[in-house]
Design a protein that fits this description.
The protein has 222 residues and is mainly beta. Helices cover 8% and strands 64% of the residues. It has one helix and 16 strands.
Length: 222
């Protein structure tokens, strides 16, 4: 029951954060995309501005719901889900990365196979992930929350708080600014931090590569 409630909250997060936009963004469209994953070994997500919510499950499709907001209706943007032109074994989602300086934000809610290895390149916006296999996250700005990640993970983040709970494998974080809260990592944790507090609990090993400012708190770390 607790897990079902969490999933419901995750799926609702896009709408919760969508209306936080300023500068006269208005919702202009909702689009849905789907792709069978039986032929793919990896999934790459390339997104511009907007929130990103991912929920992994026992399924063989990638299903995307996109809420599109614009300051000026009719502005150009891109939203595609298809095999990568560079590698037929990679599924590629592109959202709002094709036109620079456009007036569009896209909030994405994705359900996908929980075992599909995934890499994320994100411009800005809140990221929330539940029960997936995320390998890398390159993020410009915005809070990141991850619960139940089934593979080693590397996060390169410009700014914004990071919270990771229950990561199976090693965790490497390079962070510009913002608090970092880590709990339950089956491997080692390595952090290169510019500023902000760091809390690490229940990990095999911890290495602080560098730290600009902020407290460091460790609990049950070998």
């Amino acid at each position: 029951m607790k897990y079902s409630l969490f999933i419901s909250l995750v799926l609702a997060s896009g709408s919760l954060f969508a209306h936080d936009y300023t500068n006269n963004y208005e919702k202009v469209d909702v689009k849905s995309l789907s792709l069978n994953t039986t032929e793919f070994t990896q999934f790459v997500i390339e997104v511009g501005s907007g929130s990103l919510t991912i929920v992994g499950s026992d399924q063989d499709t990638i299903d995307v719901s996109a809420d599109i907001y614009q300051r000026e209706s009719g502005s150009k943007y891109c939203l595609t889900l298809a095999p990568s032109a560079k590698n037929a074994e990679v599924a590629l989602l592109k959202a709002n990365t094709c036109y620079h300086h456009n007036d569009t934000r896209i909030d994405l809610s994705i359900t996908m196979p929980k075992s599909l290895i995934t890499r994320i390149n994100d411009g800005s916006g809140f990221i929330q992930i539940e029960s997936a296999s995320i390998q890398t996250i390159n993020d410009g700005s915005g809070r990141i929350e991850i619960n139940n990640n089934y593979t080693s993970l590397t996060i390169n983040d410009g700014s914004g708080a990071i919270e990771v709970t229950n990561n199976r494998g090693d965790l490497v974080i390079e962070d510009g600014s913002g608090s970092i809260d880590i709990d339950d990592v089956s491997g080692s944790v390595s952090i290169d931090d510019g500023s902000g507090s760091i809390t690490v609990s229940n990990a095999e090993k911890f290495t602080l590569l560098s730290d600009g400012s902020g407290s460091v708190n460790l609990e049950n770390v070998n």
